[in-house]
Design brief:
Layout lengths: L4 E2 L3 E3 L8 E10 L6 H11 L4 E7 L2 H8 L5 E6 L9 E7 L4 E8 L12 E7 L2 E9 L6 H8 L2 H11 L6 E6 L15 E2 L16 E5 L6 E7 L2 H4 L5 H7 L6 E5 L22 E3 L2
């Protein structure tokens, strides 16, 4: 696993299993019909490396229920279906002894159909760390310009979520953006991405599409990040088998602390009045 350090930016490491971590992961076409028990065993073992996971490309809740039987002490919240054609879901999976869901999750309102799959928003608390997490699976489209157009709009999403939150300033953006974090399209300042473009998050080692964006208020998240190369460690670089059984994307993890003093005000966890709650909790 390559290690790289840029002063003041990030440290790419293999995080210890005991570390408190948050993950984002595009688990390719994660559906009940497409995954046998062995494949779910592998996926669950990778999820056990973290305490909280934002998942993209979920296709139904049944596969999450099957995962829960392999993840003792976990729960999840799932979005309503999103997408113009093929419908996908987002899901947040979390250890219930570490995280509490706050308020009602919701999907970002997109009356003008600006996003192929609208971002999904939820609020959580872990220890003294309360935060809002947004996850997104961006368009791939016919060209990079299609992807760039969506990227230019994500700062508006973050501004809305931050405004909606009241005095709570910890907003984390995660997902598969189909663009590297250093692409010219991003207009996220003062937010920064944690995965630089030369670190590849797809098992082909061709792309750096998956990322985590944080603002200056979120001091609880460190710059210690991991892109876990399961394709190399478990499948010996057999990309075809790794993609079929697990995913063509690697999980991205960041370390966090939940024992720091709360450094911002009281959050507002109700969903926007004009919205319909977009998630159902697992029974």
């Amino acid at each position: 696993m390559k290690k790289l350090f840029l002063p003041g930016v990030f440290l790419l490491v293999m995080l210890p299993l005991a570390a408190q971590t948050l993950m984002t992961w595009n688990v390719r076409i994660l559906s009940d019909n497409s995954r046998d028990d062995h494949e779910l065993d592998v996926i669950a073992s990778l999820l056990q490396r973290t305490d909280f996971a934002a998942l993209q490309e979920v296709r139904d809740s049944r596969v999450l229920d099957r995962l829960m039987t392999r993840l003792d002490g976990w729960d999840y919240v799932i979005s309503l279906p999103v997408g113009r054609g093929v419908k996908e879901f987002y899901a947040f999976l979390y250890r219930t002894d570490m995280f509490t869901l706050l308020g009602a999750p919701y999907t970002f309102r997109d009356d003008e159909d600006l996003f192929i799959r609208e971002p999904f928003v939820a609020h959580f608390r872990s220890g003294s760390f309360d935060f809002t997490i947004v996850t997104m699976h961006s368009i791939y489209g016919d060209s990079k310009e299609d992807r760039r157009l969506e990227a230019t709009r994500l700062d508006d999403v973050i501004r809305f979520v931050d405004w909606q939150n009241g005095d709570e300033d910890d907003v984390i953006l995660t997902g598969d953006f189909n663009l590297p974090g250093e692409d010219r399209a991003w207009e996220m300042s003062p937010y920064v991405c944690l995965i630089p473009s030369d670190i590849k998050t797809t098992i082909s080692d061709a792309s750096s599409y998956d990322n985590i964006w944080i603002g200056p208020a979120t001091i609880e998240l460190s710059r210690e990040v991991e892109v876990y190369p399961f394709d190399e460690l478990l499948y010996g670089n057999d990309d075809k088998t790794a993609s079929r059984e697990v995913s063509d994307h690697r999980p991205v993890l960041v370390r966090f602390r939940n024992n720091l003093p709360d450094d911002d005000g009281e959050g507002r966890w109700d969903y926007p009045e004009a919205y319909v709650p977009s998630a159902v909790l697992a029974p």
